[in-house]
Design a protein that fits this description.
10 helices, about 180 residues, about 0% strand, mainly alpha
């Protein structure tokens, strides 16, 4: 073996070993950064987004960062949704909801309820989406999260609209002041 090839191989092996020894810092900032990257990649590279969110979930679980873990579950679900597995996504969002509930994160809870309800609405699962949208409206109102409140109201309006029920207009009109207040 000639000397140049030997040194090239040695440099390659050394670089590969050094790369493999790089470890992520295990803190909330790392979890948030990985989750953010996962969210950004969900539509363009769902496999990588799922991998990153899974990594964020593992770190968050290890350091007991419940909100980071819940968001990671949500982003795993988002990646899966881009792969067209709606019901698996709903299962992950339900897991995320439970973690947000255990952390007492009202905005996270509202977000998951709206996302899960939207899946049931889009899939025509009438028996499921009523309880998701109607019962938790009070918790959304209590959290002061106008984004989630008007999302829930428009989703309920959509349910009634799909049933050709004039009550749809009442819910949509209740959402208008909330939308206007966000400008």
């Amino acid at each position: 073996m000639n000397t140049k090839l030997f040194f090239l191989l040695l440099i390659f092996i050394h670089g590969f070993a050094a790369y493999g020894q790089t470890k992520l810092k295990k803190d909330t900032a790392t979890v948030n950064a990985i989750n953010s990257e996962s969210r950004t990649l969900a539509a363009s590279d769902s496999a990588k987004a799922i991998h990153l969110a899974t990594q964020a979930r593992e770190i968050a679980s290890e350091i007991k960062y419940r909100k980071g873990e819940a968001n990671a579950l949500k982003y795993i679900g988002n990646g899966i949704l881009w792969e067209r597995d709606v019901w698996r996504n709903a299962g992950l969002l339900s897991q995320s909801l439970k973690v947000f509930e255990s952390a007492g994160d009202d905005i996270g809870i509202s977000n998951m309820l709206n996302n899960i309800g939207a899946i049931y609405l889009n899939q025509g699962a009438d028996d499921k989406h009523w309880s998701i949208f109607l019962n938790p409206c009070r918790s959304r109102k209590n959290s002061g999260d106008t984004l989630r409140m008007y999302s829930a109201l428009t989703n309920v309006g959509s349910i009634y609209h799909n049933k050709r029920d004039p009550a749809a207009l009442n819910y949509l009109l209740k959402a208008v002041p909330l939308v206007e207040g966000r400008r």
